[in-house]
Specification:
Layout (H helix, E strand, L loop, with lengths): L6 H10 L12 E2 L4 H8 L7 E5 L5 H9 L2 E6 L5 H7 L6 E5 L7 H8 L5 E6 L5 H10 L6 E7 H7 L10 H9 E9 L4 E2 L6 E8 L7 H16 L5 H4 L6 H10 L13 H8 L3
Parallel strand pairs: 2-3, 2-5, 3-4, 5-6
Antiparallel strand pairs: 1-8, 6-9, 7-9
The structure holds S-adenosylmethionine.
Length: about 280
């Protein structure tokens, strides 16, 4: 396929298929030729492994993934893109396009049916309106993914990869750190897309942990406590978390775990949250 980052190729595809970009679906396609090869190189995929992509667009990243992986499955919600992808991905026999909403498709079934015996990676330039819901869905389902490499808005990237404790950390940071080891790989200027979004982006990689320290019940409690605390992030923990009947009892319990009763959620490490989740 001709260079899919070339603006005149993109314009020609838009004209021939009567395609116009949908803002609502977060359609900002990559036009900087350096980005997709770099993402595909860094996402971990190899000749014996499989890769899931979310949101094909015109297939610019899909093409790079197909050159490196044994098999690519890409989930795209916009049916208008199917005939375009039929043309732009025609060189590759190892690509399957699934028309669907990533928030609704059964990803575990796709992994089991399409990638039997393979290590599976996820690599995508995410539609920005769905960044956190998609990542939480991937992680909470404990999908057997080796790593998740995604392009997200720069601010989101900072929050998702923030250290704990830190002022930048939020509820999503704690969840991401519980399930994975996150890293910010590189930043991407807003001019690297068409149409150009209002903000810059960054590529992050979440190396998914194979073993998690909590039982399912403790995990439920972990996310309940994190959400409760971060919904009131300016308040002290003793005021938001009713861990015991009285505030005094809650305060001394926190202290016994090495957590200051007047701490705010951003002052807690992941280990602090784990010790709270393990409390009966
Ligand atoms: N991969 C292409 C690229 O890098 O140029 C396109 C990336 S664009 C930021 C996001 C893509 O996700 C669009 O193709 C859009 O139609 C698709 N998309 C949006 N919402 C989706 C959803 N809920 N499920 C699957 N795909 C979705």
């Amino acid at each position: 396929m001709e260079n899919l980052t070339n603006l005149s190729v993109i314009r020609d595809l838009c004209e021939r298929y009567q395609f116009s970009f949908s803002k609502g679906l977060g359609q900002n396609f990559l036009t900087n030729p350096g980005i997709c090869p770099k993402m595909a190189d860094l996402c971990g995929v190899g000749k014996d492994s499989g890769v899931i992509e979310i949101g094909a667009g015109f297939g610019v990243l899909t093409n790079e993934l197909a050159k490196r992986a044994k098999k690519v499955v890409v989930i795209e919600i916009d049916h208008r893109l199917l005939p375009v992808l039929n043309e732009t991905l025609s060189e590759h026999e190892n690509v399957k396009v699934i028309l669907g909403d990533v928030m609704k498709v059964d990803l575990l079934r796709i992994i089991e049916e399409e990638f039997f015996g393979m290590d599976v990676f996820l690599c995508a330039n995410l539609p920005y309106y769905l960044t956190s819901p998609i990542l939480m869905r991937l992680l909470e389902q404990r999908l057997p993914l080796s790593a998740v490499t995604v392009m997200v808005q720069k601010e989101a990237a900072k929050r998702l990869t923030a250290k704990m404790p830190s002022k930048e950390a939020g509820a999503v940071t704690a969840a991401v750190r519980y399930y994975s080891d996150p890293a910010l790989l590189f930043q991407v200027n807003r001019g690297s897309f068409t149409p150009s979004p209002k903000v810059d982006s960054a590529v992050i990689r979440l190396s998914v942990k194979k073993k998690l320290p909590l039982t399912e019940k403790e995990e439920e409690r972990l996310f309940f406590l994190i959400r409760k605390a971060y919904n009131n992030r300016r308040k002290t923990l003793v005021n938001t978390l009713s861990l015991r009947e009285t505030k005094e009892e809650t305060a001394s319990l926190l202290t016994s775990l090495g957590i200051s009763a007047t701490a705010r959620p951003e002052e807690l490490s992941l280990e602090n949250w784990l010790s709270l989740a393990k409390l009966a």
